[in-house]
Amino acid sequence: MRGLSPGWRAEHVVAANPLRGSNGIAFGPDGLLYVAQFTGGRISTLDVDTGETAVVADAPLTAPDDLAFDADGTMYVVDLPPGLVRRRDPDGSLPVVADGIAAPDGIACVGRRLFVNELVPDGRLLEIELDGGPPRVLAGGLVMGNAMQAGPDGQLYYPHLGGGEVWRVAIDGPPRPELVLDGLDRPVAVRFDRDRALLVLSNATGELLRLDLDTGARTVVETGVGGADNVAVGADGRLFVSGAFRGGIVELAHGHAPRSLVPEGLHGPFGITVDGRGRTVVADEFALRVAVPGGAPAQLGALGATTPLGARGIAIAGGELQVTTRLGELHAGDPERGMRRRAAGLREPGGVVAAGDGGVLVAETGAGRVLHVDTADTVTVLADGLDRPVDVVRDASGACYVSESGHGRVVRVDDGAVLADGLDGPEGLAALDGWVYCVEARAGRLTRIRPSDGHTATVVTGLATAVLPGHVAPGSGDSPAGRPVPFHAVAVDGASLLVGA
User: Fold this and answer.
1) What's the mean pLDDT in 144-159?
2) Residue 372: CB atoms within 10 Å
3) Which of 69, 202, 207, 254 has the highest CB neighbour count under 10 A?
4) Residue 469 to residue 467: CA distance in whole angstroms
């Protein structure tokens, strides 16, 4: 951040995450590890000896999921939501070499040939014709394809992430897919080490299985990576594992605990609240997390079991956490014991706040409404006709305000009065000491507004807020296989404010 108004001071509670969604990883011809940041919308390099990272590609990428290098050192990238495969040219441009692919995910190069598979329930494994012709289908029926590699036998080995299997198929001659392994727990990446052994990474457990295909000998290594996504093998045989759910890169060395090269961090952060135990709880897409000052955020509950996927807005009401999700739901409960669904079918729900009557208020961004959900989970509309309402807040007097990102203003819900306009991407709202605070995402600043007369003042500038649109894979509806829309929240913690950027 660049500037603070007099009387204010700021400090980082959680450090910035250099790798937001570290999915596909591969070593380039320069010896650097290249990392596809799915939720960050960019590609970075990592020097595995120094830990230094640098961004080398971003727009027009939306959510790159995997990458590979051919024999000439050319990098190819799958951009999953729009269904594209891109090539990175020496001038840094990213022309499209294939399109119309359903959620392209795994990618592999064999010599100068390029292969891609699809992260869908009935996916295909394709050879991409680099001259622009239609792709050649090597296999169908993939149950969520993912990271793959050619084996020492010249066949292409690939996982069925949703089917718990590893298959292989010859890339020359008539393709005849053959089952190699089954009974696995969400195999997400298939690789080979320098000793020609098969490596299979589990997204569910973070375990790395090593299988000697000649003898059948197996060993399992605990990587400690939550939401593990990919493996890369260095020229010297060192192993590196990426984590999609929390970011970060770890190195695996025989006989040693995993070593963190890039620490885990937050994807968003999105909604922020302080719970009844004084903890700062963050809605962070793949999990609910507790901010640990000076350390890595800790996960609350089990994703998909006790906590919902796609967490967006978060608040405390009725002694419970209330969480909106990117999949159009409102959940409530204890994330360590289990949460129940209170509402579904909402269109891009965002911020949520206690209503004061035991219910909650929800900003329904996609429908342009503010909703009230009562203690019986009945949903009613308090306000509509809004232009992309992002967050909602109540002040000490009980007055309710909503941020309208589309119109660039903050409006009082009770009577429709405009509290402030001309704002640059207003999103998160909080009320403290007679002021309403608003994060202006496009401007990267925090502004406060006095409700009595609409007077505004800048609190801080230079916030690292992102305004990238979300992207969802074509034909997937509200699939989680898309990059979430940023939501920059502000919350009250005693006499202080917590700001997500």
Assistant:
1) 97
2) 18
3) 202
4) 6
For residue 106, which of 145, 63, 160, 164 has the smallest C-alpha distance?
Answer: 145
For residues 403 and 418, the answer to whether their CB atoms sit within 8 Å is no
Distance of CA 364 to the CA centre of its chain: 21
Say whether 121 sits in a helix, a strand or coil: coil
Cα–Cα nearest to 492, from 394, 421, 419: 394
Is the pLDDT reported for residue 164 higher than 70? yes
List, as one string, the DSSP characters of 400-416: EEEEETTTTEEEETTT-
Report how far residue 20's alpha carbon sits from residue 41's, in angstroms, rounded to the nearest whole number.
Answer: 8
DSSP states of 422-463: S-SSEEEEEEETTEEEEEETTTTEEEEE-TTT--EEEEEE--
* Cα–Cα distance measured from residue 330 to residue 346, given in angstroms and rounded to the nearest whole number: 8
* Residues 336 and 301: beta-carbon distance below 8 Å: yes
Contact 412, 403 (CB under 8 A): no
280-283 and 456-461 as β-strands: parallel, antiparallel, unpaired?
unpaired
CB within 8 Å of 306: residues ≥ 6 apart: 334, 335, 336, 337, 338, 339
List of residues 6+ apart from 244 with CB closer than 8 A: 21, 22, 23, 38, 203, 227, 228, 229, 286
Closest CA to 319 of 379, 275, 375, 376: 275
User: Closest by alpha carbon to 389, among 417, 416, 427, 360?
Assistant: 427
Q: Give per-residue pLDDT as tens, 357-400.
A: 989 999 999 999 999 999 999 999 999 999 999 999 999 999 99
Give the pair of three-digit tokens for residue 402: 């909503």
pLDDT at 404: 97
**Mean pLDDT confidence for 226-241:** 94
Contact assessment for residue 384 and residue 398, using Cβ atoms and an 8 Å cutoff? no
Is the separation of the CB atoms in 166 and 157 below 8 Å?
A: yes
Give Cβ neighbours of residue 37 (< 8 Å, ≥ 6 apart).
19, 20, 21, 22, 23, 43, 44, 64
Instruction: Quick: pLDDT tens for 289-345.
Output: 998 877 778 888 887 778 888 899 999 999 999 999 988 999 999 998 999 999 999
Q: What is the largest CA-CA distance in the chain?
A: 78
Token pair of 229, please?
């996504």
DSSP state of 131: T
State residue 295 phi and psi, 5-degree precision.
Answer: -135, 180
pTM reported for the whole predicted model:
0.90
Of 332, 334, 371, 336, give the one whose Cα is nearest residue 350. Answer: 371
Q: What angle do CA 218, 259, 61 make, to 5 degrees?
A: 95
Contacts of 341 (CB under 8 A, 6+ apart): 308, 329, 330, 331
Eight-state DSSP code of residue 185:
S
